[in-house]
């Protein structure tokens, strides 16, 4: 790598380096109330009796469990893994041109899927909730950061859905951490697809609302894209089979030209009730990524960067909205989705009330097309109240 590129990679790692390192967590003796659920393909290390660490190393096997968050200070206090999946890929043999999974590992895997579904179904039943909010973090986020952010989203959304995080092995150290995390995100796509398949089959579930940040947007859109193609090829309607209501992409670290060909060209947006993209054209972190990777980042786009064909597509489908947050977060902010109360409040109205951009419960002003600007709060109904 050229010296300038190496320097920029280091600068990017330092820019997002405030999350801290991996810390040891107490092992919970029993599920906590309220329960914050997780699925993770991080390698779990037991560094001392009664404590565990979710490392930056990759694990071919998923773990499903619960975590305890101190709702007073918002900090993670402990975690417990309830279900351990067999490692993937499962061994298989070919029969008449078809891959057939070996019976033993396949039974163990199905048992793990069934146990995860049963646990979530019981949690929905006991809580009286019908929806799940699923959070997928971005670059340089450790397990505790992920769970604490999930708790923040859950609380501002009125604690109205069951909270679940998908924690992939981000947070690699060193000057090239960004590139290591990118590949760990690619490693995690199959596991996220499996997670979404399991969630779609949870009894009693109504909708899944997904919030993804930064590099997490690439992981989740890649997984969803493959599932949407799979559903349509099988003659199913993706909105009905996947149960994803809202897809929220905050500061998405995606190449916009790739978005054009892999998402827009594949008619990705109509598979969901609503796609909300939070953007900041001056996002400094995405600006560094843009220099390193040479493509305009999706989280920095403006209406003027859309081609005529894209403007026409968005005009027709009308369920994809771009929210410019720079007026309330500052021109260079990247982590605004979890730190800025205006952004969190607007996100909550999307999740809880399904509010459209023109709804008076959202502090949005129209720009051009389906681009909106988030402005400072004015007197408005509480989160979740009906429009009035």
**How large is the share of residues in beta strands?**
15-25%
Q: Taking Cα atoms only, what radius of gyration do you get, to the nearest Å? A: 20 Å
State the major sheet. 12 strands, mixed
Kindly give the count of domains. Answer: 1
Overall residue-averaged pLDDT value: 88
- The CATH architecture comes to 3-Layer(aba) Sandwich
What structural category do the secondary elements indicate?
alpha/beta
What separation lies between the terminal Cα atoms?
57 Å
Low-confidence stretches: 6-11, 13-20, 27-32
CATH class descriptor name: Alpha Beta
Number of strands: 14
Q: What is the overall number of helices? A: 13
SSE succession: HEEEEEEHEHEHHEHHEHEHHEHHHEE
CATH fold-level topology: Rossmann fold
CATH homologous superfamily descriptor: Alpha/Beta hydrolase fold, catalytic domain
Percent helix range: 25-40%
Could you characterize what this model shows?
- The protein has 388 residues and is α/β, with parallel strands linked by helices.
- The chain has helices at residues 3-15, 103-127, 143-156, 177-187, 189-200, 215-233, 238-242, 256-264, 284-293, 308-317, 326-329, 336-339, 341-353, and strands spanning 25-26, 36-48, 51-70, 75-84, 92-95, 98-101, 132-136, 162-167, 208-213, 244-250, 274-279, 320-324, 364-366, 371-374.
- Strands 1, 2, 3, 4, 7, 8, 9, 10, 11, 12, 13 and 14 form a 12-stranded mixed β-sheet that branches.
- A hairpin with a 2-residue loop joins strand 2 and strand 3 (51-70).
- The radius of gyration is 20 Å and the shape is globular.
């Amino acid at each position: 790598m050229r010296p300038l590129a190496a320097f920029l990679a280091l600068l990017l790692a330092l820019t997002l380096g405030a999350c801290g390192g991996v810390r040891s967590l107490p092992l919970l003796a029993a599920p906590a109330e309220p329960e914050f659920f997780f699925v993770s393909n991080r390698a779990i290390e037991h560094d001392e009796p009664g404590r565990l660490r979710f490392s930056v190393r990759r694990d071919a096997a998923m773990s499903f469990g619960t975590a305890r968050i101190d709702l007073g200070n918002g900090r993670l206090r402990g975690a417990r893994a309830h279900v351990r999946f067999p490692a993937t890929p499962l061994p298989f043999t070919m029969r008449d041109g078809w891959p057939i999974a070996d019976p033993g590992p396949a039974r163990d895997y199905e048992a793990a899927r069934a146990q995860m579904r049963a646990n979530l179904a019981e949690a929905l039943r006991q809580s009286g909730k019908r929806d799940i909010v699923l959070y997928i973090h971005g670059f340089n986020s450790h397990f505790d950061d992920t769970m604490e952010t999930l708790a923040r989203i859950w609380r501002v959304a009125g604690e109205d859905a069951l909270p679940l995080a998908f924690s992939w092995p981000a947070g690699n150290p060193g000057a090239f951490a960004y590139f290591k995390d990118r590949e760990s995100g690619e490693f995690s796509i199959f596991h996220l697809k499996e997670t979404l398949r399991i969630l779609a089959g949870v009894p009693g579930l109504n909708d899944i609302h997904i919030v993804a940040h930064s590099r997490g947007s690439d992981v989740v859109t890649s997984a969803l894209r493959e599932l949407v193609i799979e559903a349509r090829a099988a003659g199913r309607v993706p909105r009905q089979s996947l149960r994803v209501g809202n897809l929220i992409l905050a500061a998405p670290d995606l190449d916009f030209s790739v978005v054009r060909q892999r998402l827009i060209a594949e008619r990705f947006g109509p598979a969901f009730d609503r796609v909300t993209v939070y953007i900041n054209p001056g996002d400094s972190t995405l600006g560094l990524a843009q220099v390193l990777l040479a493509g305009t980042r999706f989280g920095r786009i403006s209406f003027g960067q859309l081609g005529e064909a894209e403007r026409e597509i968005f005009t027709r489908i009308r369920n994809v909205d771009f929210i410019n947050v720079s007026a309330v977060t500052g021109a260079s902010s990247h982590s605004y989705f979890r730190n800025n109360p205006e952004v969190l409040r607007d996100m909550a109205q999307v999740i809880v009330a399904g509010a459209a951009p023109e709804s008076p419960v959202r502090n949005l002003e129209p720009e051009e097309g389906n681009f909106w600007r988030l402005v400072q709060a004015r007197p408005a109904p509480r989160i979740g109240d009906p429009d009035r």
